[in-house]
Amino acid sequence: MPPEEMCIFGLVGWSGSGKTTLITGLIEDLVRRGISVSTMKRAHQGFDLDRTGKDSYLHRAAGAMEVMVTSTERWALMHELRGKPELSIEEAAQKMTKIDLLLIEGSTDHPHYKLEVHRPSIGKSLMAPSDPFIVAVASDEPLSDVAVPVLDLNDHPSIA
Question: Which of 8, 61, 85, 90 pairs with 34 at a CA distance of 20 to 30 A?
Answer without folding.
Answer: 90
